């Protein structure tokens, strides 16, 4: 959370542990539900989080809020934990973590390039790790990820798209509504795996 004297910014970013939340709950630190405080919110949704500006309030200041999300799947900061497909839905209180990209060591190799989704169908291009981690040549816990545009092989760094998430724990998530063009490019990804962890075909 980013709290100033009059504002309260509880918005989510690409490093947030909840990959695709389906609900949000917010309340003040004293337990009053956000919808009962009378505050006006700039953002209040499971995708964006909560954002409140004091300048929008009759009191000229926001309450101090805490939020939690109902998640389909959760990414934990513990290196031994993994992301799995959304099999069950349970309420999960989440906190913000920072995911750092790891430089691949020589004791491993890159998987083949793969694309399992297309932005023409659905909300964007979702190249989730859990869809490929059991395939031959891939691994459960890769240490790095690379992405490029299918066909042109243009690196994701230069594609101009905004990514909701892109890391070796989750994969690549690109949402059409976040793009200036209204649609993500179609991406393929590959992962760097330690030699001992690579699935054998």
UniProtKB/TrEMBL annotation:
Q: Does the keyword Secreted apply?
A: yes
Top-rank lineage group of the source organism: Eukaryota
Which region ranges are annotated with the description Disordered? 80-105
The entry's keywords: Glycoprotein, Secreted, Signal
Q: What is its main location?
A: secreted
Q: Which stretches are tagged as biased composition: Low complexity?
A: 85-104
Which stretches make up the WxxW domain? Answer: 13-71, 110-193
Cellular localisation: Secreted
One GO cellular component assignment for this chain's record is:
extracellular region
One Pfam family cited in the UniProt record for this chain? Mucin2_WxxW
Instruction: Output this protein's name.
Output: WxxW domain-containing protein
Supply the source organism for this entry. Answer: Ciona savignyi (Pacific transparent sea squirt)
């Amino acid at each position: 959370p980013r709290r100033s004297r009059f504002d309260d910014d509880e918005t989510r970013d690409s490093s947030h542990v909840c990959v695709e939340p389906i609900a949000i709950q917010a309340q003040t630190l004293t337990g009053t539900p956000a919808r009962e405080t009378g505050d006006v919110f700039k953002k209040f949704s499971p995708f964006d989080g909560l954002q409140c500006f004091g300048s929008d309030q009759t009191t000229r200041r926001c309450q101090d809020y805490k939020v939690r999300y109902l998640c389909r799947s959760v990414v934990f900061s513990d290196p031994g934990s993994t992301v799995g497909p959304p099999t069950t839905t349970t309420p999960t209180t989440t906190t913000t973590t920072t995911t750092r990209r790891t430089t691949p060591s020589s004791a491993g190799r890159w998987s083949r390039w793969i694309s399992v989704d297309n932005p023409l169908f659905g909300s964007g291009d979702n190249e989730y790790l859990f869809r490929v981690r059991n395939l031959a040549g891939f691994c459960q816990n890769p240490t790095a990820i690379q992405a490029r545009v299918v066909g042109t092989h243009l690196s994701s760094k230069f594609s101009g798209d905004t990514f909701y998430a892109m890391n070796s724990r989750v994969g690549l998530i690109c949402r059409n509504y976040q793009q200036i063009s209204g649609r993500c490019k179609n991406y393929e990804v590959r992962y760097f795996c330690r030699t001992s962890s690579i699935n054998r075909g």
